[in-house]
Design goal:
Blueprint: E1 18-25, H1 38-49, H2 55-68, E2 71-79, E3 83-87, E4 91-95, E5 99-106, E6 112-116, H3 120-123, H4 127-130, E7 136-141, H5 142-149, E8 159-162, E9 169-171, H6 173-188, E10 191-192, E11 201-204, H7 211-222, E12 227-237, E13 241-249, H8 253-264, E14 274-278, H9 282-287, E15 294-295
Helix pairs in contact: 1-2, 2-6, 5-6, 7-8
């Protein structure tokens, strides 16, 4: 089951959003680096010419290429001195001593997207950048872009727009999360995230219990003193089924969940994913009903 099916179909617009409402940071440094993403450029060109039958498959490939391989350009505008900035209508920010502005693309409804570009040719399609030899950029991987739009360093956006002045492909935060989780699954064989409150899911005991996966996780847990217990459930949402492992542990979250997930992932049944959440999360406590599968 794919994370990317019909991923962007409702986020593509016929005309570019207006470039405005910059967000700010003091952590980014300008670079002058040639950037090329030939595979992504080819996929975007194919998508533009594709019929409705081929578009879902191409969108999957575009999403995976962005998440796994792409290095994308962001425009940045360093400044010195003090700057008082009202970001949208609900965020007011004061920065002293200088920093970096990242221009956002804002739709008529007020939704702010972070513009990213596959190469300098795409960036230069913007009139304000066509003849501007001093434009400064930051080259970012997908993981770095996720941190930016997620609010780290006080940079906030509602999503990403790829090649604002041509392809204008908009990606919502929900779809960015799907891409992030798919990349995590490809790298580790499992996904670790917190299920949002508004997500409707049904939990139950798997009819076809994944015994090999459960025993592999148990073997790892017995050798890790930080793991106190875990519950194993079947989680069904409107879009997919996965196994949910609720873990009661102490110590570093990432180390514990990654270690346990790496041990169990080779035995995840075909067609399923393994989701993992801490017992301390509110959803984890609701999901951890009955006796745990493993208890120290």
């Amino acid at each position: 089951m794919s994370f990317f099916s019909n991923l962007f179909s409702s986020f593509r617009s016929s005309s570019p959003a207006n470039s405005a409402n910059p967000s700010e940071s003091s952590a980014l440094e300008a670079v002058e680096t040639p950037v090329e993403n030939p595979k992504l450029t080819m996929l975007l060109a194919d998508y533009a010419q594709a019929d409705d039958r081929r578009k879902p498959e191409l969108l999957e490939k575009i999403a995976e290429e962005i998440a796994i391989n792409a290095q994308l350009l962001l425009v940045i505008k360093p400044f010195k001195g003090n700057r008082f900035k009202a970001y949208r209508q609900d965020k007011v920010q004061m920065q002293k001593g200088g920093g970096t502005i990242i221009p956002m693309a804002v739709t008529p409804s007020g939704t702010a997207y972070l513009p990213v570009y596959t190469d300098w040719t795409e960036l230069r399609k913007g009139k304000q950048y066509a003849q501007n030899k001093d434009v400064k950029t930051f080259v970012a991987s997908f993981d770095e872009i996720v941190k930016i739009i997620g609010g780290e360093k006080e940079i906030i956006a509602d999503g990403i727009v790829v090649n604002l002045y041509s392809d204008n492909l908009m990606i919502s935060p929900k779809n960015v999360l799907s891409m992030k989780e798919h990349k995590e699954y490809l790298n580790t064989g499992h996904v670790s995230h917190v299920v949002q409150k508004e997500t409707k899911v049904t939990l139950g005991t798997p009819a076809d219990f994944p015994a090999e996966m459960a025993e592999a996780a148990t073997k790892y847990a017995r050798n890790n003193p930080n793991i106190n217990a875990f519950w194993l459930k079947l989680m069904t949402s409107e879009e997919e089924q996965s196994f949910l492992m609720v873990v009661d542990f102490t110590g570093d979250r990432e180390a514990v969940l990654n270690g346990l997930g790496n041990a169990a992932s080779p035995y995840v049944p075909k067609g399923f994913y393994l989701d993992m959440i801490p017992y301390t999360d509110s959803f984890g406590q609701q999901a951890a009903t009955g006796e745990p599968y493993y208890k120290r």
